[in-house]
Each structure stands twice: as C-alpha cells, then as structure tokens.
Amino acid sequence: MKPDLPSKKKIPYPISRSLDRYLQKHNRKLNIHLQYEDLLRYHESLPLLDLDNEDTLWRTVYYHDQDQQEINRDLKLIYAFLKTDGDVEVIEHLSIARIDYCTFGNTQPFRIRIINRLNDNYDHFYIKRADASRVYGLELENLVSPNNFHYFLNRDTLIEEHIPGIPGDVFMKHNLDDNEFNQIRMAKEFIKFNERCFVRLLGDMRSYNYVVDITPDIEGSQFRIRAIDFDQQSYEGRKSFYLPQYFKDNNPIIFLGIQHMRAKAVSQYQLEERSLIVARVKTTQRRLRELFEIMVKDTLSSPEKIAQLRDELQQHHNTHAFDNCRSMGELVRTNFRLLLQKDFKQSLEL
C-alpha cells in the first residue's frame, strides 16, 4: 500500500461551546491579553539557520520596543502558568531570548525561547491558532498515551508546552546504526507507536511530526516515540493515513523491524500496547467518556471523508459496528471500543 498524504491543507475547525466548557472544567483555559494575532504584528524578520547554516524555514521576528515589552510580559506570564501553575515569582528571573515564526504547516506556530537568567538554562513553548481537531488530539494524547504535557486555550489561541526529543527524521539519520539490542528496542517502540496512533486515529505521523526520547538504561537504551503534531486528529478519510508504517520516510526504522522481528513478536508488541491502553482507559474512563460525548457531536471533517473512513474501517475490522457513525468522533469512539475489545473480553463504557 502506498503512503497516504493529506488530500489538501487541513481545514481548521472552531472550538465549540461544549468543548470550551470541558476545557474550563478541567483547567485548560487561560485568560491573558496576548493572542496569536498580536504576534503577527512584527515589523521585521530574519531566516533562522541551523548549525550547518541551512534554512530551518522558521523566521526570527522582531517587534517595536513598546510592543516588545508588552509581549514579553505576557509571554513570561504564560510560561509561569505552564511550569509553576501561575506562580509569578519565577517571572523576575526569566527573559525572552527569541520569538520564531514557522512559515509552513497548518497552524503556523510561534516558538518562544525563554531563558532563566539564574543559570542560563533555556526552554521553549508554542503559541498557535486554536483548532478543535488539535485540541481533541492533545486531550487524547494526555488521556490514553503514556505521555503527559501541559497546554491551554486562551480564547482563540492555543498554548503548548515543548515536547523534548530528537526529531524522527534526524533520529533515523544519525541513531539507527546501533547494536542489535537497541535496534530491536527501536523497532519495538515504533510498533507500539503505530498501534497507539491507529487506536485513537491520529494521522500524518511522518518522521518530522514526532520525536524520539532516549533514556539510558542498565543495558542499552529505552526509546519512546512521541507525537508533536496533532492537527490531523481524525480528519482524513483514508485508513492508512492513521498507520505510520505506510509513510515511506519511516522505512528505515520499519526495515529494522523486518530485519530483527518475526510476525509473532510483532503481534505480541501490538497486544502489549493495547493492554497498556486498556489500563489507561480504566483510570481516565469518566473523563474520556465526557470528551467523547462532546466529540461525537462536533464537526471535525467533511461528510465525504467521514464516509470514506467509515467504509475502510468497516472493511479493516470486518464488522458493521461503524454503520451508524456520522461523525469523526463516533468513528474514533467505535474504533476504541473494537480495538480494545478485540483481545480483551471486558466492557469499557466509552
């Protein structure tokens, strides 16, 4: 099967009142003056180059002095909410080192580089246009994946914590040439990542849309693949779009699996990941049910894409369980139910 690419540029969808109330209830809302549109009022920008003097396709932006002071104040306040639950005492030690603007991608984010003057340590966070698809993707990542991170909605602006790790394309270029033990662990993690994406229908996981976190262990290293782009949460109509194994730029790590693993081992790791998802669903079941009740009523894609994905999931699972699904939210919820019950004979009310 050929890798599937987005049919067209992703259409952003507004945050519904129900989703907004959900975010307010679960402390995902901020009320700060600074908005995404304010950051677009820069008066100058320069290309941001990497260490090899190559264009990163980000641009460092600059503001007039008065605007810069107001923007810096609000950016430091946002960082305090991300890291210290709004404790403003940390602000006096912070300074904004750089604001970069991404000229490609759906959300065209701003990346804020912030420095702690006490030790010159730096961190990043992102400011983007709000999009309902992305918010659902962020929530599902926190509820059913092994990863947690902070984000907030500030009216029409989305604020996200930086997710650390080596970009997937860079990782495959420089880190795959390792001992066999670590290569097997890399391939194992990609299988589990592939399973996580398909269960929750997170699409477009090409190598530059995720990072790899490496943790040294007693023997060898542990690897964790973490999605960093959630714009394509249940939007496209093609089933293969939600399986990272079908994107050709993931082939190097896929070939490691083919080289080192038998089909039985692959099935074992898929089952292992489903069991971990079940455990997470059990601990977040009430909140996940609340999220799905909102998601199934939301418009997150076109009727044509919904119909296509419904038909392809029906064929994949060999079931009629999707017959009555009329929204992407219903497809995600039904896919959860089927995949979790496929190997686990238990009732999970989602």
3D structure, described in words:
- The protein has 350 residues and is of the alpha+beta class.
- It folds into 2 domains: 17-131 and 149-161, no CATH class; 166-342.
- The chain contains 10 helices and 10 strands.
- It has helices at residues 17-25, 36-39, 65-84, 132-144, 168-174, 180-200, 251-260, 263-295, 303-317, 328-342, and strands spanning 44-49, 55-62, 94-102, 110-116, 121-129, 151-154, 157-161, 166-167, 210-216, 221-227.
- A 7-stranded antiparallel sheet has the order 1-2-3-4-5-7-6. Strands 8-9-10 form a 3-stranded antiparallel sheet.
- It is globular, with a radius of gyration of 21 Å.
- It starts with 16 loop residues before the first helix and ends in an 8-residue tail after the last helix.
- The relative contact order is 0.12.
- The mean pLDDT is 92.
